[in-house]
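Q: My labmate handed me this sequence with no annotations at all. I'd like to see what the chain might look like in three dimensions before we decide whether it's worth expressing. Could you predict it?
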Amino acid sequence: MKNLSSLSTKTQFQYANEKLPHKELQVIFQLTKDKIDVVDISAKKISRQALVKLLKQNEGKNIANGDTFIDCVVLTHTNRSKPCFTDAKKNIPENSVFHDSEVSGGMVLMTVLVPYIVVGAASDGDFYVNNKIDNELLNRVGATIKSDIFTTKNEIHDALTNNAITTFTKNVKPYMSLIDHDFLIKAINSAQSIEKLESIKRLLSDDNYYGFVVKSPVVNQRNRPSTKGKIINKHKKGTLIISEKIEDGWVYNGEGWIYKKILLSRLADAQKAISYRENNLRLNQRYAGLVSGSSVASINKVLNNKEHLAGIPQDKINKLKAKRYALLDEADFKAAKQKNTVAGFDRYLAQHKKGAYRNEALLAKKAIFVSQASFDGYMNAFALTKKRSFLALAKNAIVNSNESVHVNRQLLDTYFEAQIKHKNSISEFAGLLDKINDASINDYSKKLLKLSGINTSFRTDNYLESIEYQYILQYFTPQLNVNYHHKYLNLDLTYPDINIRIKEDANCDFKETKNGVRNRGFLESLVTLNGDDKVAYTYDVFNCKLGRNELTSVKKLLHDLPYYADFSASTLSKSWEATETTSSYTYSTETKSTSFSSQLADWKYTVKCTGTTFSGTPPRTYSGLIINSTHSDAYLTAQKVQSDMDCNDRFGSRYIGEGYLDMEIQ
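A: Here is what I predict for the chain of 666 residues:
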């Protein structure tokens, strides 16, 4: 504490603008001729009885003899000081150090507090006015105490946040009521030792860390202890509430009432924080001891002891388990690496799904596979890495072998799935199978028939030379069915996993034209959105027969091809009758009762033009409308349109003749 005789005007105003943590602070201090010491700081009002008793201690004392005086001063938000106690007439008691007269014993206090020259100038006695307050002394004392409050508060803040400090050079307990609660809680939560927490705990008590803190965003202050009381003030979160009394769960702060449940006791909250932090620190200390072991056995000993783990947070236990896993992971990989076998690395990979050495184990396996320089080795390397370069190495391992080889069937299947995608690869794959023991192309027939590029339609002169037959179908005997059509004959071969059609052209001669009527099915009418139930149609009849060259080609094919059939090849030289519909129209029996040959109606004709054989040209159509005509006349008119400009004339040389004519009544 500074010597009052050296307290300058600058020092008095140094803290003039510093905001006090309370509206008013009542400070009890001790005064000697050299210094002032703070005894207690309170935001609570000190009773008159207590003050009288306090000042009574000054009777008979002499400051010049080194006696200590005690008194009380009030510091306010207005940066002014005032005595804590005056009598009924507002006079300052004679025992107060602020009494502007001699204190018992004849010593004038001003000789201590102001320069000697000032006292000398006033030695005639006119300087003192009996029973009045010495305001200059009052303000000097107040300024000195305020200076002490803020400097000490800063010292406490520094000490609270410094984990190395567990003791204070002076008694700071009286100042604890001035510490911001959030700052104190933060300091508690940041404490790194039990000793630090104990030093904070010793500073707190009901006498010096009292009051409540607003914990809600805002609370109401009412004129009486009831929710029906009038709201006279509001307090924001964090506001310090000093209680003078508590009634029925309501706190009175000298101005109004605030509901206690929405307030937080500063002392209780601080003690709770200390207890929680202390428990965590003790657990951390114990945990640090638990994890000091560096072997799986020592960690297992801890994890298997429930008493050791009592109170340890789960995240700490998980870290301990993770440490054990890391030790096991490292040990198992070292063992696998020492053996340097595929089985050893597989065991490590199976046991350590998230192991730290998985990539190293996989690389080691790949190196072992490649070192085998075999089909199986390279295919295992491919399965492990998916690098296609190993497929070529696997193939070459078989091709370059001077003798037949044994391979893993599953790895052979893997090679097929990865490398054989199109039918053009079949011959190469067949060559590999020829050098592999216990493997046949027949084993892969079903998969081969599903490859891209596989054909199902052939001519009689190219089927037996096709890849499909040479490498796959020659090993099977199909069921043969012969189907006769207009202008061609089909040989339909049914194999276990595929159907093949072989087509040969036929020579057909026109025989006659015929008419017919058939019933339309319900679904046929539904799909076309047409309610007619009859179809009248015209068709041409032809006599068809295989030409000499075509017959020879078919017979040669059937001679060389094994098959099952219920017919004789001699029947192929016979002719057959085939038909081709040339026109048709639909009608309803409910609305049409006259003969179609004589009925007058509007007719729509549609001609469908098809491309030449195997040209792949898509069909095209053209149509027209014939008004108020019988069917036969309309048909003749449509035929004339066809003959005047046939499909070939309309769409080009890739289209055949007149096309197919269809008539539809409108």
